[in-house]
Amino acid sequence: MSSHLVRHPGPGCIVEYMQGNQPVAGFVVEDKSGRLKVLTHTGREAAVPATRLLPWSGPLHEGVTTRSGMEETLRRHVEERARLAAGVDAMALWEMAQGEVDSAAPEWFAELLSQAPPADLVAAVGRALLDLKTHFKLHPPLFHVYPAEEVARRMDEAERQRVVERLVTAGRDFVKTLWNLPADRRPPSLGDAAAEQRLKEILLARIRDPEDKESEAVWRELRKGLPEHPHLALIVAVKWGLVPPHHNFHLDQADYAWGDAWAGPFAADAERMARAVAALPEAAEADAGFVSIDGPTTRDIDDAFALRRAEGGLALSIAIACPAFAWEFGSELDRAVRDRATSIYLPEGAAHMLPEALATDVFSLRQGLTRPGLVLDFLLSESGAVLERDIRFAPVRVARNITYQAAEAAIAAGEAGETGDGERMALAARLAQALQERRIERGAVLIQRPEPEVVLTGFPERAVVELQDKGDTPRAQVLVSEFMILANEACALWARERGVALLHRTQDMALPRELAGVWDDPLGIARVVKQMGPTQLEPTPRPHRALGLEAYAPSTSPLRRYPDLINAAQLFGFLRHGAAPWSADDLSAMLPRLSARLDAAAQVQRFRPRYWKLLFVKQNPERFFEAVAVEDCGALLSFSVPELQIFVRAPKELCGDKFIPGQRFALRFGKTDPLMNEIRVAEAVAE
Questions:
Q1: How far apart, in Å, are the Cα atoms of 639 and each of 329, 522, 524, 658, 659?
Q2: Which one of 78, 416, 456, 621 has the fewest beta carbons within 10 angstroms of its own beta carbon?
Q3: What is the mean pLDDT of residues 302-317?
Q4: Which residues contact 324 (CB under 8 A, 6 or more apart)?
Q5: Are the CB atoms for 152 and 160 separated by under 8 Å?
Q6: Contact 380, 313 (CB under 8 A)
């Protein structure tokens, strides 16, 4: 008998092959054209193709021909290989192979332990290497040696799989316990830190994406026996304390970071820009008399105006904050801001597009401070006709930051004969009204739908919702909106005349002439909205029909919206250097990603306030709300609820058989689920 390996195994040879992910030893009884008849150590016979054999066949026992002799010989080899394998340190073999070979035959590894290794030692080494799957992979006849980086990754994955197995074993009952946990009970512990961490990762992944593929298999096991609720992971996470009550999952699904912690790594960028702004020369006297009008809590102030009578008409200057003055496009900060795309304002607070220090201080047009600005200078007639317009860059200093309420009071005072600020504010209001009337003559469709202010107390643990009237400031609101529309139109036309590419908001569709005007009744608004198509963001300066404009390039909110920041950069670049940073093709290339991010943020801005409104309804189950019937939807009637500024549907049998457009009802709501965005009418009383 030879103790060595055999290249071409035949009768009398000890061989091994894989079965059920384990090596099985056998004694070759006969060979028929490469198909071996093998007696295994369990006493069974098997037909094994020679191609399935592991690369350590041998030794050869040619004189053993009886079955009992074969079984005894095989038993000795199996026991010897088990004994030898127990003493093989596969990890040490991997360390010795590092830097020496990428792959090698099993006998090469055995020779690291013995000068002339017998077949049993080679087989024992092979078995040990097969068991260490994180470090070796068999590609017959060689073992591939994984590099250290790959080994670390595979070991992490192996540990992760072991954690998942423990989690599936213990986690199903744990998740069910959390689902059924009363609100006043503290959550239990899973008792396995690694499994708990993995469960947290899975829950957060499912909140971000209910269709998350990576966690799907494990989650399917964990939620067995629980309802098919689309927000099951969120509900369990809240009960566990992983996320707070009323967690805003819309932010997670939009991949939008709330608060200002995301801006921490960019503190040096903010300091650099602050130094650049501080080095600006003082604003000239003509650019030091601006007034801004905003809400009482607004700190990111990006527009202001100054108005005076001048030879030939009214001289109006509109200042727009200009972060492009010190912005580094293409930087890490810029990419982060571009992905945020817009600021988000919700009842629970605001999340700024820019780092808060930049949005509310460094670039904000705060009273008494010099800031970089794009200044649009107009000469207008009393009737709102634009006689002259130009754009320039200049340091500006806002004289006063005032609220809508203060502006409304100043307008009233000016109309009553007060001079000074009241007179100027009343003049501005009259000009704004003239601008609006000119737009209506050009087909503008204006919808006035006052949004209630959602006020939260006890947020988040014991959130109570109240709805408050923001206060009636119609003339101040028209003043601001018309001046901003005028500025955005001017930017579009000025840039078009000079061949500067901008991003434009367009709505190039035919609108019926009878839609032109101001709509403030629920029935009229519902009918108008159905006939108005969506707007688009594009580099081509096409009309915006609903605004009654030939072209409209959003530029007046560069602190709050990335398209406005791009447009401000284009204008600033042309003014400073005679050329804009990007061509129309460049802007087109930006649009797919930017539009997707804007849409994601818009989902948050649209659905989160509705969540709070539905919670208000749920917290006031006996209250009736005034509603207006606006559309017959077959078996259902659609209602506008002005106090909530939402639309709801109710079965006709609750409302009477006949649909009367504009008929007023008092509605009481039944089942209301803010999380599922569901609200059902329980009672409808016709007035």
A1: 47, 9, 12, 14, 11
A2: 416
A3: 96
A4: 558, 565, 568, 569, 572, 573
A5: no
A6: yes
Contact 51, 34 (CB under 8 A): yes
Is 399 found in the same domain as 348?
Answer: yes
The Cβ-side half-sphere exposure at 287, using a 13 Å CA radius, reads 25
Number of domains in the chain: 4
Report CA torsion sign: 416, 422, 423, 425.
negative
| Tokens 């995301």 sit on residue | 262
> Of 106, 123, 146, at which residue does a domain stop?
146
Q: Please state, in angstroms and rounded to a whole number, the distance separating the CA atoms of residues 173 and 181.
A: 12
Is residue 408 predicted with pLDDT exceeding 80? yes
Residue type, 423: E
| pLDDT above 90: residue 191 | no
d(CA 544, CA 623) in angstroms, rounded, equals 41
Q: DSSP class of residue 358? A: I
Q: 543, 568, 601 — which closes off a domain?
A: 601
Buried residues in 417-451 as b, exposed as e (16+ CB within 10 A): eeeebbebbbbbbbbbebbbebbeeebbbbeeeee
Tens digit of pLDDT for each residue in 535-558? 999 999 999 999 999 999 999 999
Q: How far apart are the first and last CA of the chain?
A: 107
For 196-234, what is each residue's pLDDT tens digit?
998 999 999 999 999 999 999 899 989 999 999 999 999
Q: Say if 250 falls within a structural domain.
A: no
Residue 368 neighbours by CB under 8 Å, 6+ apart: 397, 398, 399
Instruction: Strand 14-19: give its sheet, edge to edge.
Output: 14-19, 22-32, 35-40, 45-49
Q: Are 358 and 323 in contact (CB under 8 A)?
A: yes
Same domain, 314 and 415: yes
Is 192 within the bounds of a domain? yes
Q: How far is 547 from 561, CA to CA, in rounded Å? A: 19
Q: What is the pTM of this model?
A: 0.81
DSSP letter at 359? Answer: I
Instruction: List beta partners, residue 145.
Output: 136
- The amino acid sitting at 87 is G
Percent of the chain predicted with pLDDT > 90: 85
